[in-house]
Fold each of these.
Amino acid sequence: MKAALLSIGDELLLGETVDTNAAVIAGRLYGVGVAVRRQLTVGDDEEAIAEALDSLAAEHQLVIATGGLGPTDDDVTARAAAQASGRRLVLHEEALARLQDFFARRGREMHPANERQCLLPARVTLVPNPTGTASGFQLLHRDCLLIFLPGVPGEMVRMLEETVLPLVLARRDESRVVRTRQLTLFGVSEAEIGARLTGLTVARPGLGVAYCVDYPLVQVRLRGEGDGSEAVQRLLDGAAAEVRERLGEHIVAEDGESIDLAVARLFREKRVSLALAESCTGGLIAKRITDVAGSSAYFLLGAVTYANGAKVRLLDVPEELLAAKGAVSAEVAMAMAKGARRLAGSDLALAVTGIAGPEGGDAVKPVGTVFIALADRAGCTSKEYRFSGSRDQIRTVTAVTALDWLRRRLLTL
Amino acid sequence: MKAALLSIGDELLLGETVDTNAAVIAGRLYGVGVAVRRQLTVGDDEEAIAEALDSLAAEHQLVIATGGLGPTDDDVTARAAAQASGRRLVLHEEALARLQDFFARRGREMHPANERQCLLPARVTLVPNPTGTASGFQLLHRDCLLIFLPGVPGEMVRMLEETVLPLVLARRDESRVVRTRQLTLFGVSEAEIGARLTGLTVARPGLGVAYCVDYPLVQVRLRGEGDGSEAVQRLLDGAAAEVRERLGEHIVAEDGESIDLAVARLFREKRVSLALAESCTGGLIAKRITDVAGSSAYFLLGAVTYANGAKVRLLDVPEELLAAKGAVSAEVAMAMAKGARRLAGSDLALAVTGIAGPEGGDAVKPVGTVFIALADRAGCTSKEYRFSGSRDQIRTVTAVTALDWLRRRLLTL
């Protein structure tokens, strides 16, 4: 089944609203084995919408349109649908009854402007909207099923799940199955990954591979298509095993689990507690750790010691050490980690100190110089890094590197 | 100038990635007076991209395409551009020299696969990419300017600002002037803002007003269009003054300055130092403070005291107080703020403690209960909030509320 999406709204073309509906619908359709071939956005313009509907209907078997079903003058999708399909616009009695009921249940008076939302092309079938005033509807045009949903994300999603997906499932070609698998890699470039995975699809018909950079991570996305879910499962299992074989040391998470969630899961599984001491990341690592609900079970404290005085007072970093080695040094990173561990009484303590820039670098320690240290009961290790990029990039890659240190250490426990 | 956008990538049509690039580019083009007429998304498919380029070029004077310029096999945008414009694919010497330089500056070996990113249609002009390996480029086809940018948002935005917008400004109709002005509001709903600004455009021909929610902030965007920049400037000055008159107490930043940057500017201007003590925000406020380069001049330290023991050990919060009042209380928030100020020796210290959820709430202190406290030489004040939404939303609105506390306090100094 060839599918297309049409997003309608001036706010999308003015850049005032990010179109999340398209991604949500595409993802759900993909989940039931229907791949979207193209997605188009037009403004609140009757001619433009009608033309888009007609041309998309000519090349696809399913078109889902969102937006332009509200009660105000700039909502013209129903009129455009009537024009594109050569139908009259009529007052839809069932839609009107539903809308009156919608207001009655809420004990509210229906505004006359809302009746406009029941003017639909003749002979359409309703797509019920349990949570809003806009009536969804569907019609056949040029052998293409055109489905119209409101642009309000919450209303749209519920109508998609309750009515549209069952409808699509009933119409699609049953025999084809599509599944995906995702692996998240760190510490290796997209170019290198592509090179190491050369030939992965050879002798694996139905397998597709795509790469997506989410700096500093790279996602490898495997897509399997075939007859029957078992065969597709085997295809993806084989391909994922091959990726692990070729790039295993760089895989930090699989199947939608982020590195943050993988680290959180390991902390829970291993029953180990954590303290952090951050200089150049300024709280970013603590923020990412505590983004995960339930992190209070293992995260005891974080010290954001931006000033040297704070390193001395909070973490007992010796002043002489700071004077002799500088705040950005392996020795200070280790003193910070040990100090944080002592202060928190935690199993592990991780510390970072570095120069995120754009100022503060010199020839010996340029911008991007970062030391990471990890202390545990047995002692403390540290390593120097030279990262590049903007302040934001250096802070982000430092945080991900720190999370990967924790992940690797937790795996050994 | 009629403009269109083309987004390229299987991940967009599979719903794995939300297309934020389209909104960013549309918004920036609108800011220089160019309205996008349509936006199209296609997958990583050479034929589909070439066909889309050709048909968009026939109906527009400007097409900006993003995505598909990476080093791997699924990146086929340059090949499609060559096909659509009837050109050969050639190794672009300048692009190659730039790329070699890119790797040399970072002290890294260039992977052979990256050379593929310099295979571009013949006779194109480069759009330099200072932060990544993908070469942007532009070419004329059917009297339409086609511009190709990578899909990585950070790289794309920088190229858009440094090269594309000046290029567009030089080509568009010179006589009409379009300027925008932006005011950022906090603590007031979009509906309330709309009601209070009723009639703003009356008697102000050429003025447009749009609203954009960037939770928990709302941006009011004024757009002035007219003949001559002085007249447009006056129009916008008058409208902005009216917005300040009607909603002044809620304006936290103007003209692209975020609330984070406004706070940073005030700290520098007032020469005041800061310490933070965070519980439920877990480092998020420190992260936002240190996102700004130069924050080490005023930010001394942050204590992320997630566990009760950390509050006691780091901030000298009395154990009896924690037992009597609970960690989420006005008394503990004030003890945290005073403790952080004492520890850092700072002028100001801000503390937050609360329940971000989804677990941990009860009838008396439901999820979303947050206490903020601010200590200075004269004493300490605190306030209780009841925020709603997801864990992420509660943490974000808490951080913005805290930044707004700092902003208001600094303005009184």
Amino acid sequence: MSKYDAPLTDIRFVLYDVLDVETIYATLPGGENAPREIIDAVLDEAAKFTGQVLAPLNKSGDQEGCHWDNTVVTTPKGFKQAYAQWVEGGWPGINLPEQYGGQHLPESIGGAVKEMIESANLAWGTYTLLSHGAAAALIHHGEEWQREVFLKPITHGNWTGTMCLTEPHCGTDLGLLKTKAEAQADGSYSISGTKIFITAGEHDLADNIIHLVLARLPDAPAGTKGISLFIVPKFKVDQSGKVGERNAATCGSIEHKMGIKGSATCVMNFDGAQGWLIGPLNKGLNCMFTMMNAARVGVGVQGLGLIERAYQNSLAYARDRLQMRSLSGPKRPDKPADPIIVHPDIRRMLLKQKAFAEAGRALVYDAYIQVELADRSTDPATQKHAEELLSFLTPIVKALMTEMAIECTIDAQQIFGGHGYIQEWGMEQFVRDARITTIYEGTTQIQALDLLGRKIMALQGVGFRHFLDEVGTFCKAQAGNAIVAEFVGPLAKAAQEWAALTQEIAASAVKNPEEIGAAAVDYLYYSGYITLAYYWARIVVAAQNSKHGDDFKQAKLHTARFYYARILPRTLSHVAMIRAGSASLMDIPEEQFSVA
Amino acid sequence: MSKYDAPLTDIRFVLYDVLDVETIYATLPGGENAPREIIDAVLDEAAKFTGQVLAPLNKSGDQEGCHWDNTVVTTPKGFKQAYAQWVEGGWPGINLPEQYGGQHLPESIGGAVKEMIESANLAWGTYTLLSHGAAAALIHHGEEWQREVFLKPITHGNWTGTMCLTEPHCGTDLGLLKTKAEAQADGSYSISGTKIFITAGEHDLADNIIHLVLARLPDAPAGTKGISLFIVPKFKVDQSGKVGERNAATCGSIEHKMGIKGSATCVMNFDGAQGWLIGPLNKGLNCMFTMMNAARVGVGVQGLGLIERAYQNSLAYARDRLQMRSLSGPKRPDKPADPIIVHPDIRRMLLKQKAFAEAGRALVYDAYIQVELADRSTDPATQKHAEELLSFLTPIVKALMTEMAIECTIDAQQIFGGHGYIQEWGMEQFVRDARITTIYEGTTQIQALDLLGRKIMALQGVGFRHFLDEVGTFCKAQAGNAIVAEFVGPLAKAAQEWAALTQEIAASAVKNPEEIGAAAVDYLYYSGYITLAYYWARIVVAAQNSKHGDDFKQAKLHTARFYYARILPRTLSHVAMIRAGSASLMDIPEEQFSVA
């Protein structure tokens, strides 16, 4: 069975040394709730819970899957007990406001806990994932009674949340959605329609499930401007908080999927279900989008979690498995063969995972810092800056970390050779689980259009400029630091090229809007690789200034060198592909895709 | 359910127009067996069999899997009947010598049939895969009685074959193998040991199973120089061909795998089983290697087959699925949204699959032509040239086509969005099935070392020079051809760079043998992309000279342009990574891969 030990040393290094969260927390109201002793204790407890409770259920959950019987969904053995322990430990409210029963710890601490959950048991984690989104919607858009009634039990964890967007004929294109909402005399709405791919739409872990449902009033404008958001509980809840009878919101079936089999992916039927409007009428998409950044960063964390676990296991195997001799002569003459970690390409695959896990951790936690600054800072300028930077970083976090999770879990599996293909060893599950992460919460294609089309073009790249400024400031500050000089030069050059290339694309897009779509995915990868190069340079500096030993510092230095030598050059191809422009994709007429 | 229609137009185009097989067949003994009417009839029948019989069993076979009970393996419903039809149609002997009951059609025809099988049902295809290897071993190394006794029923198909190499502690490193062979008074050997990952090691499709087993005599030299090859039938067979009692060669269990679940992957226990030596004592690995090129090309065909089927299905979906409007304005204003094929990145993912399927087909069939020239040509110079070229092309065919199969099946799945992750649609199975192809028959890492370490360095790149000569001759011949000028220039430049880069690596490897291992995988991809660029240029010329219509010719031209603009630039990154050298992988001490 595959192992998992929370990488607490590196998690703490990223929080304290790379990102200096203590200084940031001190500026936030409630920052006094998070001194280092508390953070350390939370991380230790999370490591125990995820390692001892969740990780052992990962494979059995995959093999058993969820079961559906006449609208009732049963989760795999042990999931319910683990969830009860999760509630018992007070985890559901870790980042939620104290007035509703939460601990209001900073989002970046929640992000670190989340990383451990995703490493230990991604499928189980999906039951907690959307509660966060539902809570955010309630906090930002709910009326006071709605917060009182719905947010407290979600914070406590005996209720969970969902997001109900997708319908059979529309996933990405929500303007097409058909679910109806009709106003009722009591101020509620009657919701009718079918939603698909609803994660945790039905399960046996909690007493009630709060669906946030996008629907359309009969007289609403067409397209995305006529969509409203509704709270639709599994069991009806009135404005006083009294829980009533079963609502007409039922699970019609669950999907049989490639992976995350322990997660119930539901078809949800709303047959005149009672719902409550949340936020302004016809502004449902806006309300949903406020949950989107955090939810997308959350999927990026899933990618990070999978890379970390894949790395731990493939590293252990590479040290253990004896096969062939090193090309430069036997390294363990006492054994019948050398451990495969002596072979250069095994090292390449290991270092790739290590490089993406460690810089990815810095990127992802930094994004969570922007979430908390945007949410909690009392300084409007800081808040605005964080919002803009977050909106730029989000598609990179989401798409890059998930695409790299696919690549890295495949590499980890490859290191196991034939054993990697066998279920028993657990490596193939990581690939299957990883595969969903580039699809849900907006595909990589959607993230790429969000980055280039919206964040760069439509919003004039304000978040991008913040990031470039940050990189520029870092490079200047490190100008005299010999330890990082080998990275600062290439990083500054890459940032310069990045800015110029962005201008170039913008200019060509003015003439032809297809250039955006033609460049977007390559531009996202390109941007992502430079982004992580920045974090690698920061990691080297932070390690140098930390109290860690020489081995730790050297390991960071070597991994950064690997990244700059073996990963950053991927940008060369992406630049060429971006410059190839839209003609190479659009000139071929549709009928010529198949000529018999 | 996913569809499959054999791409007969393109298969014929590659055979007749791109590779001009008719001219080649005419030079071979028995070439008169394969006039165009026969080839066309064989291809038509194969299209029917694979489309109507095998394809419908693909998903059910995956869902049902194989079952093991007390050494007996039951294949999924319908597999046995399909195999009976396969035998009935005379397919097992399609390429085997007439004197043993075969039709002795050229290998490239067999390759085209094989492509259709792999597209239709890869798991089912594995039961036929290793018979070919066993037959090749018997033809090249068997004594006359062995050919008489074993080859005839294999040719007929009522017996199948296996290759038993891997043991629990050794896959790649066969020098470590422990299975014992002890000489018996009757001239047979007693074989004892355990083999794992034996494809089709036990099943219910055929009357007997002929295992080719690597084992070691008690007094044999250590390592790979002490390995011999033995024929070990499931039911004992004496030298007269009489089938006797059950041999002590039994299936201890089958593996539960990520994919190819309809294929029985067996643990085989040999407990003093009766075996017959084939080939010289202690030369077992050599005998095995004669099967290796064809078997590895065969796995490359699996990659091709998966890409083709993934393409057909994702193209159909992209034409059908309505979602969002084109960035340059609505293309189907009559519909609620445009079909997603209007979006540039959907086209990028489709064109990638199309480009790898169509040039991959030319590469793979060309490799089979080298197999048949090496095997059948009466001209020793032609034979030698083909052998050398094949030995160079084999690792490229095997590794590139399978790695691209993973990439392309993932892209095809991505085009389906959330539906791609659901088993019902069939796309996720292709990814899971594809995943084995970069592992078995030598991982991508092993193929890369074979290419750079063995074919380029140890054998002084003789096959590589043949290939470069061919590319050079092509470029010169097409110098005045305007239609292909846009490709010939970049191709000639790439070939030049390839030769120089190879020299560069060779020079650095003289100083440090680790450079080979550090460069190998990037070098393989690099070489593969240029190789396919050559076939794309040939395809454009062949289309131009063919009797196909303008749409066909234009489609080839556009796809070639896509390939040169969007795939060939991948070489840029690989060059930079190769030049990064071994230091970026080897400098980090083993203990620094994890520092707590």
